[in-house]
Amino acid sequence: MSSRANGWVDSYIDALLSTGLSTESARIAAEQAKGAPDDVEQEAANIAAKYYVHQILAMDEESIQQAYLKVRARSNVKTAGERDARLEHITWRVWTMRRRAAAARLRPIDESPDPSVVPDLRSDEGGGGGGAVDEEELTKLYGRRPRPASDAPRAPASDAASSEAAEREQRLLLRRLSIPPRGGAAGAELLSESSEEAAAATPTTEAVPATPPGGLAALAGSGLNLGEDRVPKLYVVLISMHGLVRGDQMELGKDPDTGGQVKYVVELARALARHPAVHRVDLLTRLIADPSVHKDYSAREEALDEPVGALGGARIVRIQCGPPDKYIRKEMLWPHVREFADNALAHVAKTLAALAAAGEVCELYDIHGHYADAGEAAALMSFTLGSDMVLTGHSLGRNKLDHLLKSRTMSRREIEAAYAVTRRIEGEERALDAASLVFTSTQQEVKDQWGLYDGYNAALARILQDRPRAGRHFPVMAVIPPGLDFSNLKVDCPPDPWQQLAAAAAVSGTRSRRASVSAAAGGGAEEAAGDGAAKQPPSATGLSRRGSSPSAAAAHSAAAADASPLAPAGPEEDPPIWQEIFRFLRNPRKPVILAMSRPDAKKNITALVRAYGESRPLRDIANLVLIMGNREVIDGMAPGSARVLESVLKLVDAYDLYGCVAYPKRHSQDDISDIYLLPHHTRGVFVNIALQEPFGLTLIEAAAHGVPIVATTHGGPVDIIHTLHNGILVAPTDTRAVSDALLKLLTDPGLWEQYATSGRDNINAYSWPSHCMRCLCAIEKEKLKAAARRKTAMRATYSYDLDEIADQLTGLTATGSAALDPGAIAARASSDLGPAPPTLDAPPAAVDDSLLGTSPRVRSLAASSVPLIAAAPGMAPPPSPRQPTGRSSLDGPPTAANGDRAVAQPRSQLAPKSKYLVLLLDGADSAARLAALVARKGKSMLAAAAGAGQTVGVGVASAYGLGDTLRLLAGAGLSAGDVDFAVTDCGSQIWLAGAASARAPGAAAGAAAEACAADESYDAHIDHNWDKISVRRLLAHLLAQPGIFAGLAGGAAAPPPLRVSVDTETGSHHLLLTLRRRNAPAGGAAAPPLAPEALLALVSRIKRRFRSSGVRAQIAAQLEADGAARLHITPLRASRALALRYLAHRHGVPLADLVFVSCAREMAPGAPARFAASDAEDLVAGVQGVLVLPPPPAAGDGAAVAAASAGFAVDLEPYSHDGRIQLMPAAAS
After folding, report:
1. Residues 222, 36: Cα–Cα separation, whole Å
2. I want to staple 59 with a disulfide (CB 3.0 to 4.6 A). Which of 63, 232, 408, 1127 is the partner?
3. Which parts of the chain are coiled coil (predicted)?
4. pLDDT tens for residues 290-304?
5. Cα 589 from chain centroid?
6. Which domain holds residue 679?
7. Nearest-CA neighbor of 376 among 410, 330, 309, 409?
8. Is the confidence at residue 614, as pLDDT, over 90?
9. Is 73 helix (H, G, I), strand (E, B) or coil?
10. Which helix (H) or strand (E) holds 982?
11. Which residues lie closer than 8 Å to 1112 by C-beta, 6 or more apart?
12. How many domains does the chain have?
């Protein structure tokens, strides 16, 4: 036999010496354990002794003989006195017992062996080799007596039959002992028994159904067109912004951002591209040209699979955002999300055009964001493209915050500084706003994690599924476990029924590249290689070196039956990573307790080390192997990772675990499978006891390699073990429970075998074909449902009951502190058409009755009884734009008005220009300053552009309506004819300017407004998930809650009361809420202005209530120079930033050709700039140029100066890395 095959025997012989089976080690252990209770020490010694005896007994005779000869040879050397002389006696006694036991004829017995009985190998009696083993000794050894032959008569048999029966009984005996043998063909024979014997010997477990719910035919014939004949094919966009992402040799664990998510998204992209309905998959991630990382991360594109056609297949596409020469951790990426989305939007538009030009027409099927940052980027892209957006959270901020606060290891301030958790949670809420589907791994994730968010209310979501309401939306939570790429693991898996489903869905042929699907699915590798390809022989373990077996279920079962799960695979030499691990271990062939994760505090690695160190039986029986990412030096690691590793090293020293714990410095992607095979070959256990595990891909990988698991009760492992039936769940902070679970698996071979087999047999529940098919089916079904809802959504018959239900389900008040009284809710909701009740801070007459309205249909542009803006000195309320037509923007193109005055018909396309100067209009003061800038600089800019062969257009993005916007510009001396387009009402409308006849100097604002055409496609675009009736009624309900205006008093003891007016007639996609302090009594001090921070708190309260009720909207606050404040409520797809991006995308204008010009209210060196509108940061972020004008010199009394300088703070520093933001000096302005 080879030295490697017997290597573990030598290791066990040495282990016997160190576990109390020799007089020398017993004496040393007694000295070390002085003061410990005798019964505890005895129990620990018995556990280890029983384990090693059973392992030796499971050896085949040849292996024991070889070990014995080696021991005798060692005893003859000069140093024999240093070794325990009883070792030879122990080996000889075990060998003799083994031979006698194998020759005994035992009938099948239903009783289980007594685990408490351990052969006393330390006794000096009966040490000879030739004597027969008596019945009492067999009873001790096997836990039962042999049944006498007289108990049941035997039929006569020939010598051959008798020999065969003896061998069969021998196999059954060892099987009943639940001891799978080690070593060669003899060991393999002992596992080969009839199905009846297997059923009697191994407990059965409930397996996951081999076929999808309803059967293959049911799903294939469900009407979902996801087969080869799908026209057009699908173009899928995946986004994973952070970490180091590449297709091969992933540096998993290199830093906290490069973990399991990176591997998941790369494998998902590959698997989706192999689906017959999918033509192209782009995985978008951040481009990194930092010299400290590999140059691969600076490549613009990387193919993940063999291309299909000219442009098909899977690719990694790296998008620039933030400083490209600097690697940025995910917590610092938030200011660059908008830039990423802008550049990604340009890439997707370019790709769609290229596919069409190449004759490979595709539809953009969905944009799939992974994690909070990518989820927000995907939402921004979907707002512009109008495409479906789906989300996978991976790990969630609210859940992380909750665990960190409960752990008391960090203060809230420290958590915020380290993880930017508040911004992360808001990013997740924004992603929920836009998502049509959220993919989760487990039901626990839906209930205990997403249930913490305002944007998801499980009870209300179920109601809306049954009774859809226009303007109310919650994403569908689809529980679909992630997939595993078995082609990268050295395992054989059963045939995948989901691969059969994909084949059933393909009704017309198969593309040439589809042959590679089977390699990823766990089958068909040999067929994909061709008839002439060399076929890889199966390994003796049933786990191959690469790829999967092409056999059907019967062949797979036969291969498993003929294979020993413990024989070494592949060549004689141990895998390199094993050799690296063995450097740390005194007895490297003992069972391995494996944990593999990055060194993160939430992975709870230190608790595992404590559980191991505190348990003497665990230390005696097994080694602990910790794969904690890759590192060069500890000091070069991230601070959190370094702290975890230092804690592990201190625990190793404290428990004196040297020679028992391995923690190699580095491993490659090719080593992953070999790492899992180590606990498989040594009959060890894989452990993941994270404080919170969103899913746990490592648990799936361990199961695929036939390794039982011990996993945390917090998160995805609950569902994994429920599906695979392959392990034990433990509380992650209970070290005693952890050690007990490990001992149970290590010392009960039958249970170990049961869990190892169950994990392998059920593994296709987590295959990539299964995952991709279920994901695409879920998206397709939701698309069909959404189309049906758009046709049948109830608008005019909407009733107030849903608001009441939302209150009862959410228990959310304006301050989020207490639930509303249901009786009060019913009283307020008794009449759909009654006036809104008074607020705590505003008198009853302050809230306009028009909020609820009397018409089931909103008049979009009818004259309003409330002025669009507060009347500034010398400025009358303007007429409503296009008032003479009496038509809404959805009623069709405008007609000529006023009879005798001809009005030029507006155009529907934006005039092409080289550059566009976009004026951001936030108030009367900003209009004057912007107009003055254009008047002074405009001629020189136009002249310079003309000299360079370029043209410059002018646009306006205003917080006011069209009439007010044009009036403000005209009052400041800027002709309306100079404007090419206008975004008005805070992004709820886009207007294109009319022909030249309407641009004559001195033309009235009304005439200019009549010549502008609303962008009809934009109106339809932003109508998605919007219903103004729902919004205004929910707003009325919210304004009636006590404390809704808390904090707006500005700290005054008796502040003047607020006057609240609501204008619901500013357009079909816009509501305006105006807050103003009442005038102070004569001779009193001027009322303080409304604080921007208090307004933001009010916006947050309204958003929370909107989200918890299923209403999705944008809310922007605006400060007026006279101290008033305005809140603009618009559809989710409508804001000034989004409207400008929609306009640029629809008319083919690169965003980089736009220059936004904004006026700051306050700007000081080293301090954030302040702006009049809360959407200023959205307008600053991105790829467009930005010119910021400084505030004018202060003038007037203190109150006026305070009102004029108050604003919403924006830190411009993170957006200035590429020089696109310019601050104009005060002298130049």
Report:
1. 67
2. 63
3. none
4. 999 999 999 999 999
5. 38
6. 576-766
7. 330
8. yes
9. helix
10. strand 981-984
11. 433, 434, 473, 1025, 1026, 1106, 1131, 1132
12. 2
- Co-location of 474 and 359 in the same domain: yes
C-alpha distances (whole Å) from 321 to each of 296, 326, 917, 994, 1211 are: 17, 10, 23, 37, 17
- Quick one: pLDDT at residue 695? 78
The three state secondary structure string of 853-920 is CCCCCCCCCCCCCCCCCCCCCCCCCCCCCCHHHCCCCCCCCCCCCCCCCCCCCCCCCCCCCCEEEEEE
Structure tokens that stand for 518 in this block:
């089977």
CA distance 380 to 1017: 18
pLDDT value for 441? 83
Q: Which residue has the tokens 């939306």?
A: 473
Q: Is residue 106 part of a domain?
A: no
Predicted TM-score (pTM) of the model is 0.69
Assess contact for 284 and 317: CB atoms under 8 A. yes
Q: Is residue 267 domain-shared with residue 399, that is, in the same domain? A: yes
Higher local confidence (pLDDT), 572 or 277: 277
DSSP-derived secondary structure for 195-228: HHHHHHHS---PPPPSS-TTHHHHHHTSS---ST
Q: Is 676 exposed, middle or buried (0-12, 13-18, 19+ CB in 10 A)?
A: buried
How far does Cα 582 stand from its chain's mean position? 35
Q: Which of 1050, 1034, 1051, 1023 is nearest to 1102 (CA)?
A: 1034
H helices of 1073-1160, in order, are: 1092-1108, 1136-1146
Q: Where a domain ends, among 451, 479, 507? A: 479
Pairing relation of β-strands 1113-1119 and 1125-1131? Answer: antiparallel
User: 475 and 580: one domain?
Assistant: no
User: Which pLDDT band, with edges at 50, 70 and 90, does 19 fall under?
Assistant: very low
Residues forming a β-bridge with 333: none
743 in a domain, yes or no? yes
The one-letter code for the residue type at 176 is R
- Average of per-residue pLDDT across 747-765: 91
Q: Assign 1181 to helix, strand or coil.
A: coil
Query: What CATH number should be reported for the domain holding residue 660?
Result: 3.40.50.2000
Confidence class of residue 1195 from pLDDT cuts 50, 70 and 90?
low
Find, among 108, 71, 301, 93, the residue nearest to 193 by Cα: 108
Cα–Cα nearest to 1012, from 877, 924, 908: 908
The closest of 1210, 1224, 1031, 1140 to 473, measured between CA atoms, is: 1031
Secondary structure element (H or E) that encloses residue 390, with its range: strand 389-392
What is the residue whose two structure tokens read 């002085």? 34
Q: How far apart are CA 1043 and CA 675, in angstroms?
A: 59
Q: Are residues 381 and 256 in the same domain?
A: yes
C-alpha–C-alpha distance, residues 222 and 232, integer Å: 19
Any domain includes 1105: no
How would you classify the pairing of strands 952-958 and 301-303? unpaired
According to DSSP, the residues that pair with 283 across neighbouring strands are: 238, 316
Query: In which residue are the tokens 């310019």 written?
Result: 1222
Token pair 């685990």 in the structure block, residue: 115
How many C-beta atoms lie closer than 10 Å to residue 136's C-beta? 9
Look at 930 and 865; give whichever has higher pLDDT. 930
Tell whether 1078 is covered by a domain.
Answer: no
Residues 458 and 580 in one domain: no
* Range 736-774 burial, b when 16+ CB lie within 10 A, else e: ebbbbbbbebbbebbbbbbbbbbbbbbbbbbbbbbbbbb
User: How many other C-beta atoms lie within 10 A of the C-beta of residue 670?
Assistant: 15
| CA–CA gap between residue 923 and residue 1192 (Å, rounded) | 14
- Sequence-ordered list of residues with C-beta below 8 angstroms from that of 487, at least 6 positions apart, any chain: 519, 520, 522, 525, 546, 547, 548
Question: If we measure between CA atoms, which residue out of 207, 766, 307 comes closest to residue 522?
Answer: 766
Last residue of a domain, one of 439, 455, 479: 479
Strands (E), 28-131: none
Assess contact for 1071 and 1115: CB atoms under 8 A. no
